[in-house]
Amino acid sequence: MLIIGDQGFGDCIQFGRLIPWAALLAPQPILACSGELTPILRQIPGIGKLVTRWEDTGDYDAFIPLSGLPRLAGIGTDNVPPAGYLAPPARLVEEWREKLDKLCPKGKKRVALVWAGRPTHKNDKKRTMRLKQFAPLFARDDICIVTVQKGEQIAQAGGYYGRAPLINLGPDISDFLDTMAILKNVHRLVTIDTSVAHIAGAIGVPGALVLPHAPDWRWLLNRDDTPWYPSIKLYRQQKAYDWTGVVERVAADL
Predict the structure, then answer these.
(1) Is there a single domain that holds both residue 28 and residue 106?
(2) Pair 97, 222 in one domain
(3) Closest C-alpha among 96, 114, 202 to residue 151
(4) What does the mean pLDDT of the chain come to?
(5) Is residue 221 part of a domain?
(6) I need a surface site. Which of 16, 123, 202, 233 has the fewest CB within 10 A?
(7) Edge-to-edge, what's the strand order for the sheet holding 30-32?
């Protein structure tokens, strides 16, 4: 059987937990996914072969998109397979601990931050924020901001101003394993709806996820928790495109 990573990075991380279930029905499935995901998805048991090019799939007698597994498995809000199915290598966690111990002032809580998603995402305008919109966090003098932002929006860190020290790790992050290891060395993640939120949830790191008024379906409605990731708390816009009060609530709950 061929399982196709058909959606974005976050979707593949979220639904990857169902691959072991699929492997019980069709042993040693082939998983086709983006190359960026291979360092973490290869941790999931039951995969027979992991490929990043169609010509490498070989023969198979059935296929299904990875996003179709929850429906096939009959997943609802009361039977989501538990988180904790991913973990960074212990060696990498220790390397990043040593780096952060040198970079972050002692005695301050480390808060990882992501403020922008990939601009090619169809709903990016609804979810992406500007770094300066997290000013309520920056006003605190008991935390250290650790950015795990990737892409062109890293440049916003050059205009940062706030009481909290800011450590820009974006240029030093090679892949998702680095991101996972960094998150294991912070007190909390604050993020928009992007792949890093799924990584934190999958490895059990506490996180604050800020959501637009009309969120993606997976976050449901009228609740501040998610059955997919017990370590993640949801902070929702009160009205569309208005982030007023959202970050204030996040900062107050730290």
Answers:
(1) no
(2) yes
(3) 114
(4) 95
(5) yes
(6) 123
(7) 49-51, 30-32, 2-4, 63-65
Tally DSSP H helices, then E strands, for the chain: 10, 10
59 vs 30: CA distance, rounded Å: 9
For 68-126, give the DSSP string.
GHHHHHT--TT-PPPS------HHHHHHHHHHHHHHSPTTSEEEEEE----TTSTTHHH
Residue 85 within any structural domain of the chain = no
Cα 113 to Cα 17, 165, 173, 185, distances in angstroms:
25, 13, 14, 13
Residue 35, number of CB atoms within 10 A of its CB: 11
106 lies in the same domain as 30? no
Q: What is the CA radius of gyration of the chain?
A: 19
Q: Nearest CA to 213 among 129, 126, 136, 133? A: 126
DSSP H or E run through 223: none
Angle between helices 195-203 and 176-183 (to 10 degrees): 60
Which residue range is the domain that position 108 belongs to?
Answer: 90-253
Distances (CA, A) of 73 to 11, 50, 66: 16, 22, 12
Tell me the CA end-to-end span of the chain in Å, nearest whole number.
45
* pLDDT exceeds cutoff 70 at 122: no
- pLDDT tens, 50-85? 999 999 999 999 999 999 999 999 999 999 999 999
pTM of this prediction exceeds 0.85: yes
Q: Is residue 230's pLDDT more than 90?
A: yes
